[in-house]
Write a structure and sequence with these properties.
- The chain has 738 residues and is α+β, with helices and mostly antiparallel strands.
- It is built from 21 helices and 33 strands.
- The protein has a 7-stranded antiparallel β-sheet with strand order 7-6-12-11-10-8-9.
- Helix 1 packs antiparallel against helix 5, helix 8 packs antiparallel against helix 9 and helix 19 packs across helix 20.
- The radius of gyration is 36 Å and the shape is flat.
């Protein structure tokens, strides 16, 4: 529509060319629509450095502007000369309800005539129409975006949502969770909607409503709000599902119910949780009752004896009482720690600690408690110090040693090994006992019954303490009878203490020659999952949850690719693509839980290389990363005339002669030659070569360009290789020019 407006205005006024510029919400130029300009003139106008200043000046005008001496007017504003001679011009800002949306220009009227008042009226009329069109388009875009976001939110909600038409009782929409909830009672080959004809609703007070006898349409005639009602949905063959249901009628202005929104939660998970909680409380009660029974029995024996027991016998009873009291103390301490972990209030105070000392303390405590299993320690001599809260890590080791002893014969040795894993100190406790079935491995660190009775709190506490240090814990077993191995990691000294998602040092990654991948996500679980997948594929992941520090992180780490979460606290990935210029130099892959076509299209339209929907497998992630890197890498050798640049070997030859360049000069040549034929702005050169996001240090670039030209035998006055685009930047020769 804007193209039609600018074409019509130019034709009616007899102008030689016309331009409409639109601005975004921040006042920056968003788009430029032209009429009557050749491609070359359009390019020259877009590269004119003072264009934004002219647009800003027009935005402050209260009335249209007619010029008979354009160059003099530009000079009075302190603007540089326009890219070509313009004789006459008229322009006006485009406003809509007080908001400046852009500017409209008409220039170079036919036969060198001046623009008239009638021409000005035409310009103002068309500018008003263009402003209205822009405002309407923005409003439509915002409404569509809000609707798409709302639909995505409802579709991915963990609560089932169903919308019904009140007049017919027919469902308008079901979200994914609602369909999952009723899947268990749906008849194969029939849709979820067909359940409404045969389903019965049984309330907690015993009432039953058959939807076959009392259709929803009749129930909705006088619908009332329902809050947190437990309702069992069942079908004639006996299958059922219990739900927690809310219903909200949506009324028209005259009070008539037009639709009903029903939200439901599946109570099966809560029922299982209650069952586990009751089982756990029963186990805890049993565990506490056993030592209490021993204490009470020993005390009653001494107090109820007809004669005072002998001192040796009395001492034995006291030992029983003390041992069982200590056992109760440990049980209660474990319960308190488990409660702190569940409430998120567990804290640790890590300091640089010698790992061998902590392991030795744990072994001493373990053996002094009456354990019979020999403990074999194998730690490398160069094992680094770790950031650890000594008491808590000793507690973790003690729990793992006790767990190993409980599931091994008394003579079976327990091994403690150490290693380094990606900047972490890893400690492993292995036993040769009864082993762990494969189906139990995922459940070991949950609050439940232990492998051989007991509360099972030891491993829960180990997991909480290790993760509080910023590490992870895992279990491995070959199966029943093949023993088990528990490994946990804690950050090596020198890393940020307590950081749950530490990032790999860029320098160490460079030394290993690995491709660095920057991962930005505020979910620690996603960061750990992606980090492990990339590490296993041979990449060097650099992970962070801080979007504000993204520009500095890109400059310091120099990643080859960025994996960017779509939704981040206070911002989103698409906004970052527009706001952080460093991202434009890299391939970016969005990772998100939103898979709607509109969202994917917006992300790819912002310049992203790819889009991955959660959940995804490590195989898919690595394949997409490789494809994006392969598409971005380009040829390894650049040849133009007598000049040859081998990027991989960092070798430059000119007419067969080797050209020796410094690291900065080679990087400058790489940046310019990669975009041969296109202008690279000074600011972009600073960012790509020196990692500086600034525009005031042009002398640094000029000096480097001068040195590079000298080594290439280039003359700034009559260049062959590097051309200066004044006020903008530099352009490397294209094949035709060379």
């Amino acid at each position: 529509m804007l193209q039609e407006v600018v074409d019509s205005a130019r034709e009616l006024t007899g102008a030689g060319w016309a331009v409409i510029t639109t601005l975004d919400r921040r006042g920056a130029v968003q788009d430029i629509v032209t009429s009557g300009l050749t491609p070359e003139n359009r390019r020259r106008m877009l590269e004119w450095p003072d264009g934004p200043r002219l647009f800003e000046h027009l935005g402050d005008l209260a009335n249209p502007l007619r010029l008979t001496d354009v160059q003099h007017f530009f000079g009075s504003l302190g603007l540089s000369a326009f890219p070509w001679v313009v004789k006459t011009m008229q322009g006006t800002p485009m406003h809509h309800r007080g908001e400046h949306l852009g500017s409209f220009f008409l220039a170079d009227k036919d036969s060198d005539e001046q623009f008239t008042a009638e021409d000005e009226e035409i310009l103002v009329l068309f500018a008003s129409q263009a402003a209205t069109a822009i405002a309407n388009a923005r409003t439509h875009h915002e409404v569509e975006r809000a609707r798409a976001d709302l639909e995505a939110l409802i579709e991915t909600s963990p609560v089932g949502v169903a919308v019904f038409d009140a007049s017919t009782g027919r469902p308008v929409s079901f979200n994914r969770e609602a369909r999952r909830i009723v899947e268990g009672i749906r008849t194969p080959g029939h849709s979820a909607e067909q359940l409404l004809g045969v389903m019965t609703c049984r309330y907690a007070d015993g009432r039953e409503v058959s939807l076959e006898e009392l259709p929803l349409a009749r129930q909705f005639e006088d619908a009332a709000t329902v809050r947190a009602e437990e309702i069992e949905l069942s079908v004639p063959d006996g299958r059922s599902v219990r739900t927690l249901l809310n219903a909200t009628p949506i009324r028209s202005r005259n009070g008539q119910v037009v639709s009903v929104v029903v939200t439901m939660q599946d109570l099966r998970a809560l029922e299982e949780l209650e069952r586990q909680r009751a089982q756990f409380l029963g186990m805890v009660s049993h565990e506490l009752r056993a030592p209490l029974t021993s204490i009470k029995g020993s005390a009653a024996t001494v107090l109820g004896a007809m004669q005072v027991p002998a001192p040796a016998e009395m001492l034995q009873f006291f030992r029983i009482i003390e041992g069982q009291a200590d056992h109760m103390h440990r049980l209660i301490a474990n319960l308190l720690d488990a409660g702190s972990i569940e409430a998120g209030t567990l804290t640790v105070a890590p300091v640089a600690s010698d790992v061998a000392t902590l392991v030795d303390r744990a072994r001493t405590t373990f053996l002094s408690g009456g354990a019979h299993n020999p403990v074999l320690i194998d730690l490398p001599q160069d094992l680094p110090r770790a950031m650890a809260d000594g008491e808590r890590i000793v507690q973790v080791l003690n729990n793992l040693l006790s767990n190993a002893a409980r599931h091994s014969s008394p003579s079976s040795p327990i091994r403690v090994d150490g290693d380094v894993e990606d900047g972490y100190v890893a400690l492993s406790v292995s036993d040769g006992g009864r082993g762990i079935p494969a189906d139990e491995l995922p459940c070991l660190f949950r609050k439940r019954a232990g492998r051989a009775g007991g509360t099972g709190l030891g491993l829960v506490i180990c997991k909480g303490l290790v993760e509080a240090h910023g590490g992870r814990i895992r279990a491995e077993s070959g199966g029943p009878g093949l023993g088990a191995r528990f490994t946990f990691t804690i950050p090596a000294a020198g890393r940020a203490a307590g950081d749950p998602v530490p990032r790999v040092s860029s320098e160490s990654a460079k030394r290993r020659g690995k491709t660095r991948i920057l991962v930005v996500d505020d979910d620690p679980r996603t960061l750990r999952y992606v980090r492990d997948a990339l590490s296993a594929a041979g990449y060097a992941p650099v992970v962070t949850g801080d979007a504000d520090g993204l520009p500095g992180l890109i400059r310091s780490e120099k990643p080859h690719l960025v994996l960017l979460d779509l939704m981040l606290p206070g911002t989103d990935g698409i906004e970052l693509m527009n706001r952080v210029p460093e991202l434009s130099d890299l391939p970016v892959i969005f990772i998100s839980g939103y898979g709607r076509d509109e969202t994917v299209a917006r992300a790819l339209g912002s310049g992203a290389a790819d889009y991955i929907v959660k959940p995804f497998s490590p195989t898919e992630l690595v394949a997409r990363v490789r494809a994006a890197l392969r598409g971005r890498s380009g040829p390894d050798t650049f040849v133009l005339g007598e000049l040859s640049v081998n990027y991989g070997k960092r070798r430059v030859t000119l007419a067969g002669r080797r050209v020796s360049l410094t690291a900065t000069e080679f990087e400058l040549l790489r940046v310019l030659s990669r975009d041969a034929g296109r202008v690279v702005t000074t600011r972009t050169v600073l960012r790509r070569v020196w990692g500086r996001n600034e525009s005031s240090n042009n002398s640094r670039v000029r000096t480097a360009v001068k040195q590079l030209r000298a080594k290439l035998g280039d003359d700034a006055g009559d260049p062959v290789w590097i051309f200066t685009e004044r006020g903008v930047g530099y352009r490397f020769a294209s094949p035709g020019e060379a």
